[in-house]
Design brief:
Layout (H helix, E strand, L loop, with lengths): L2 H21 L3 H24 L6 H26 L2 H22 L9 H4 L9 H19 L15 H8 L1 H7 L14 E2 L3 H4 L6 E4 L4 E4 L8 H12 L5 H14 L3 H22 L1 H8 L4 H15 L4 H16 L11 H11 L4
Parallel strand pairs: 1-3
Antiparallel strand pairs: 2-3
Helix pairs in contact: 1-4, 3-4, 6-12, 8-11, 10-11, 11-12, 11-16, 12-13
């Protein structure tokens, strides 16, 4: 790459940073001209290219990019003695600038699009503890009821008897129905793909990964079966240009609830229940303990199995990964106000108060 092109790439970074901050003030413009126009087409083109490959291109690319950066750093260290440090610094900066510019162009501006409450015509407002309790109670009733319809292992734990491939094949059903209500969730995208190193990924606490450079929804297939459908739906929400994590969770709840299959419905309501009950525990631990007693034995077994599963992977890597992820989310403006229960729960509460949960 010629030096002039490298310097142009480096110069683009502050320009894109400024543009990104400006666009935060104009979510409707981003929604209309980027998320539902330019970026919608680029995402679908990416998925058209990635669809024929049964494996995750993203997983290979991820490690390739890291190895590439490490090679640049090693070369830089050798240049300290032999000379040419400035040129190598330019190489590294232009490499990182290219990745950043592509990230923003291919997906990153979606952080500035309309929030999903505006798209779904939901009114986010301060909610009382009683309203949060009412939401949790309704979710418990639904979870207990749907749990009776799912397949179980010999130990009585919810199971996907046909495995993750079957889940991936059926995940589109919920999106087909949801796009009739929210056209923004429609489009032609590749099926979710399994992460080959799912076992290793568990040590980071990461359950899925969207890769803006390939447009693929990648899923950690080692998660507990009752969480696999909603995790899959969550990554599919990212495919459709919804960048904020809590909004992707809410979309996962919506699409799982609209899916005709009981395992998806159960997974979606469990995702909503876990987030809502965690919010309740932060505000009123006594009420939380009281409502926990209303869980059916089946729901309790699934949650206990999930808790036991993640205990095996607790450690410094998971803690560090969490800190890095939190920093990434904050850098992209994913913070909620002090009156918020979290965007996911706020959306659930808004829907609950409309009587359409």
């Amino acid at each position: 790459m010629k030096k002039q092109i490298k310097l142009i790439l480096i110069a683009l970074t502050p320009i894109i940073l400024i543009l990104n901050n400006i666009l935060k003030q104009y979510p409707r413009l981003v929604e209309k001209y980027y998320s539902n126009s330019l970026n919608r087409w680029t995402r679908q083109i990416q998925n058209f290219i990635a669809s024929p490959f049964p494996f995750s291109i993203a997983e290979i690319l991820y490690f390739s990019l890291i190895i590439g950066l490490l090679i640049f750093i090693v070369i830089l260290c050798t240049k300290i003695k032999s000379g040419g440090v400035l040129n190598q610094l330019i190489n590294i900066l232009s490499y990182l600038s290219l990745l950043y510019v592509l990230f923003i162009f291919l997906w990153g501006f979606n952080y500035n699009r309309l929030s999903f409450d505006k798209i779904a015509d939901l009114r986010i407002e301060k909610s009382t503890k009683d309203q949060l309790k009412g939401l949790c109670q309704e979710l418990i009733i639904r979870a207990n009821d749907i749990r009776e319809k799912v397949d179980l292992s010999p130990k009585g734990i919810m199971v996907e008897p046909l495995g993750y491939k079957d889940v991936f094949n059926r995940a589109q059903k919920g999106y087909e129905k949801s796009k009739l209500i929210f056209p923004q969730l429609g489009g032609r995208y590749s099926k979710p793909k399994p992460i080959f190193l799912s076992q290793a990924l568990c040590y980071t606490g990461i359950t899925g990964m969207y890769m803006p450079y390939t447009g693929e929804a990648n899923v950690n297939i080692r998660v507990q079966d009752f969480m696999l459908p909603c995790t899959t739906a969550h990554e599919m929400a990212h495919q459709r240009g919804f960048a904020r994590e809590d909004e992707a969770n809410y979309i996962a709840y919506i699409t799982c609830s609209l899916n005709p299959d009981a395992d998806f419905q159960y997974s979606g309501v469990m995702l909503a229940l876990i987030h809502s009950m965690n919010a309740l525990a932060d505000k009123d631990i006594n009420t939380y303990i009281e409502l926990r007693k209303q869980y059916s034995e089946g729901v309790k077994k699934d949650l206990e199995a999930d808790n036991d599963f993640w205990k095996k992977y607790n450690g410094k890597i998971k803690k560090l990964s969490g800190e890095v992820n939190n920093s990434y989310l904050k850098s992209n403006g994913q913070g909620d106000g002090t009156e918020s229960y979290g965007r996911m729960v706020d959306l659930l509460l808004a829907q609950y108060k409309k009587g359409s949960l």
